Amino acid sequence: MTKVKLCGMRSREDIFIAKDLSPDYIGFILSPGFKRSIDYTQFMHIISLLETSNIEKVGVFVNEKIDIIKKYIPFIDAIQLHGNEDESYMIRLRRFTDKKIIKAFKIKTFDDIQAANDSSADIVLLDSGTGTGKTFDHSLIKEINRPYLLAGGLSCENISEVIAKFHPWGVDVSSGIETEGKKDLDKASKFMALIKETSINQSVFLQGKDNI
User: Fold this and answer.
1) What domains appear along the chain, each with residue ranges and CATH number?
2) pTM higher than 0.70
3) Quick one: which of 32, 99, 112, 170 could link to 149 by a disulfide (CB 3.0–4.6 Å)?
4) Which of 56, 66, 64, 78 shows the shortest CA–CA distance to 30?
5) How far is CA 70 from CA 62, 78, 79, in A?
6) What are the beta bridge partners of residue 197?
7) What is the DSSP pairing of strand 56-61 with strand 25-29?
8) Which pLDDT score, from 0 to 100, does residue 78 have?
């Protein structure tokens, strides 16, 4: 089953949607200056609504000071780096935590794919930018040689085709499940249902090939 991360969570209503749908991950933008950014107080308030949920919480940071990240570490399950953080940055970060590191790569050329292939991050995320809501040239995906999260411009209109064609380990969505800038339960429900349906169909197809 394709993993699902719902990102840009920032309100009580967003958390209630997550609790209804149980994605594998939910992401919180914890660096300032972005449309979906929340501060420490907001973050602590809304994660308290998750109670004992098994949904993994991902803190998303963009070129952030490690000292800032450290105060969030006890409350998150993974750290997503969505800026220009390099290998030396990740080495320094790992001195303070054994939490999973997700490194985002803005894919424009083959060199960007190669950087993702070579990364020491636990999980790599392929995106078009920082929350742009736009797709990148998906023909470059064929060059990736490790499991990856796919982001950028995903929606109910294209998710089935994307999964069937590229078989990502997981997908990451934010604006694609929003209406007028707010998370939309109907869109999120449909998005997750399409992923489940496509993943099951792919599994049945592959099992059928094995029996030929």
Assistant:
1) 3-210 (3.20.20.70)
2) yes
3) 170
4) 64
5) 14, 12, 10
6) none
7) parallel
8) 98
- The residue with tokens 């998750």 is 50
User: What is the pLDDT, as a whole number, of residue 204?
Assistant: 52
Write out residues in the chain with pLDDT < 70, as ranges: 129-134, 202-212
Q: Is 180 left (phi over 0), alpha (psi -120 to 50) or beta?
A: left
Q: What is the pLDDT of residues 123-175, one digit of tens each?
A: 999 998 655 566 788 899 999 999 999 999 999 999 999 999 999 999 999 99
- 179, amino acid identity: T
